[in-house]
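Collaborator request log, item 7. Partner lab (contact: R.S.) asked for a structural prediction of STAS domain-containing protein to inform their binding assays.
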Amino acid sequence: CCKRKAKAAALSLLPILTWLPSYPVKQYLLSDVVSGLSTGVVQLPQGLAYAMLAAVPPVYGLYSSFYPVLLYTFFGTSRHISVGTFAVISLMIGGVVVREAPDSMFYVLPANGTNMSAVLDVEARDARRVQVAVVLTTLVGIIQIVFGLLRFGFVAIYLTEPLVRGFTTAAAFHVVISQLKYLLGVETQRFSGPLSAVYSVKAVLSKITTTNVTTLLLGLSCLVFLYVIKHLNERYKKKLPIPIPGEIIVVIVSTGVSYGLSLSDDYSVAIVGKIPTGLLPPAAPLFSLLPSLVTDSFAVAIVGFSMGISLAKIFALKHGYSVDGNQELIALGLCNFISSFFQTFAITCSMSRSLVQESTGGKTQIAGLLASLMVLLVVVAIGFVFQPLPQTALAAIIMVNLLGMFKQFRDIPSLWRTSKIELAIWLVAYVASLLLGLDYGLLVAISFAILTVIYRTQSPKSSILGHVSSTGLYYDVDDYEEAAEYEGIKVFHSNSSIYFANSDLYVNTLKEKVILEKTNSNHSSPLKVCAKYKDEAVTHEVLPQNHMVEEQRNGQLGDRHCDLNSEEAVFLEPLNAVHSIVLDWTSASFIDSVGAKAIKQLCSDCSLLCFHLQGHLLSELDSLQFFTGNATTDMVFPTVHDAVLYCQHLLIPLHPLSSTR
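Returned to partner:
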């Protein structure tokens, strides 16, 4: 424990201390202010809209757009991402909330009559759903903090890009389906779990005759307007100093129209409703709900982190700085954990807001801090102004923000051309998440992705290597014309590790490519080695039965004659039989006890077995007690060429079978 280590720990936990003291005010402040204001006008309507996805009152979306953003300024390592509410995470939270607090739990009989039907207690339902969302967020924060402290930032690598894109595309469909009832102005039950998308569509279609025409027209108008604005922003992004804030325009105009025309009272248009002024005091979550939320919290924690770190790395690479995955886990965990005591739901990075923050010139998280202060201003001072805001306008905002995710369908033809396995991962993630729900769908997708890795290691590419003349290089004889085999020596290469799942396949493939060829060669026309002794010098030639001798040169046989009238000729074993096998293990990263036993059995079956492997693999074999009996360290060589030369050296001298004079 010293001053230097304490300072390093403080800088690691609070990355803001590394850049704030040297913040270049003149160069960065104006850009950050413009970026912060631009991001804030997007964050405000998205906070209101994504609260609907999380099945909690809209004001809690504003709370979730303030506290976590403020905290990330101090703990985050990315300078450009905008944290806060996000559609996919909000939808996952909404699914859990509806499952734990369904409408059926809150129907009560009116106090003034016994013959009347039960009435839904909306206030009690919303209070319970907020409690569930808050406890889930607390648990998500704890998981992310623990993962970060244990240096588990690598867990995001298991969410491969095709998996994430297929998953988010399915999530976009879930979001759109969940917003149909708000766009049409119909009242339906919200579903969760497997086939929830099917049930939701069925419920909306069954109520389509009760569509509120005013709500539909207003929603479609907002939808078209936002789509046009989004298209203009993309087309003229190089000419526009800042993107046109279409979302805040829709919020302001639709709120004014709703208030001026009394859409809620006269046309039964659903509105946001009461937005309390001010911030809520901190309160402890209802921890009795924890046991039923553990599995869901892991899914939300991992998906939230993977979304955040992927965008953070993209911006870091673009602008030439680095982000720490473990610190990002801790930062998101602290944002979720601390904020949950102030009645927020789980957050992560938003792609649309991050692009706004970066494209409008944001340099640091000062921009995010200013955006959160804008939200604070609305919550504290003017939140009541947005009470007449129609819910159909928020639905339109959500749908248009998902257009980028639907463009991910373009991945399918590209993956079909490049990688069928990655295409399968994309499709499985999409179909499973769409039909089974986001939680089970994510589990199925990750399991399938891991199975593809096992499949690839169980079915590795194997080949016979040949020597390239005048070099020490060995390549696949089927792919390289200049690679030629040595007579009687087979070099076998497989691009996989050897363990319990593929050891049998490895041995069987080796026998097919090498050992069976030895058997076949014994049934072919016998060739004999003619060893001629002249002047104490020994030469070796291959002598067929018709006395035509062929000599191997770079894997090809050339014609020569052998003079049988020499002083002494000794006929030896045929050379074309496989007498030596060299196993090239340069691609193997590990070997387990099952694989070691399978290879050791080969040592007793083959006349000579040599190995080329890396140093760490030699240590593993030694710890597995591989080098006993027939297997010794003398069979291990630093290169394939050394092993081949050793096999050639052992071929001489040969034991004579018969002799003639």
